[in-house]
Design a protein that fits this description.
The protein has 117 residues and is an all-alpha fold. 68% of the residues lie in helices and 0% in strands. The longest helix has 16 residues.
């Protein structure tokens, strides 16, 4: 049941090794093989989570949603099909209110005020 998740997170040979052996993976190896994005000492974990959450919260919710959807939609597409899909998504993205707000905020040298639209 976890095969699709594992195959999207790490190289196929590593995934097959873990699936066939059932061996445990500890944090340093999990980071090295791409199973986790970052490993932090326990004493820095809450701070690291807060910083990551803040980075995400500073982005447009509408653009983040479009980006996430584009990522998962194109994950298993061939390159030509994925590029066609992404070109269409870029057109939708540039029409979002948040896209205009981002440009205006950049030009006015101020933080953007996202509306999620």
């Amino acid at each position: 049941m976890i095969t699709p998740v594992i195959l999207r997170a790490m190289p196929q040979k590593v995934a097959l090794d873990l699936m066939m052996t059932g061996r445990r993976v500890f944090c340093e190896e999990a980071e090295r093989i791409g199973f986790v994005r970052q490993v932090l000492p326990l004493s820095e974990f809450d701070k690291g989570v807060d910083e990551f959450a803040q980075q995400l919260a500073e982005k447009s919710p509408a653009v983040m949603r479009l980006g996430r959807d584009a990522f998962y939609t194109t994950l298993n597409m061939d390159s030509d099909t994925a590029l066609s899909h992404l070109q269409a998504m870029l057109s939708i993205n540039t029409q979002a209110e948040d896209a205009l707000e981002g440009i205006q905020a950049f030009l006015q040298k101020r933080p953007p005020e996202w509306k999620g639209k």
